[in-house]
Amino acid sequence: MTRPRFLPDNFTLMLITVVIIASFLPATGQVAVGFGWLTNIAIALLFFLHGAKLSRESIIAGAGHWRLHLLVFGLTFVLFPLLGLALKPVLSPLIGKDLYMGILYLCALPATVQSAIAFTSLARGNIPAAICSAAASSLFGIFLTPLLVTLLLNVHGEGGSTLDAIVKISVQLLLPFIAGQIMRRWIGAWVGRNKNWLKFVDQGSILLVVYGAFSEAVNEGIWQKTPIWDLAGLVVVCCLLLTLVLVTATLLSKLFGFNQEDRITILFCGSKKSLATGVPMAQVLFAGSTIGLLILPLMLFHQIQLMVCAVVAQRYAKRAEPVAELMAQVDP
Question: Which parts pass through the membrane (predicted)?
Answer without folding.
Answer: 7-25, 31-49, 70-87, 99-119, 131-153, 165-184, 234-257, 278-301
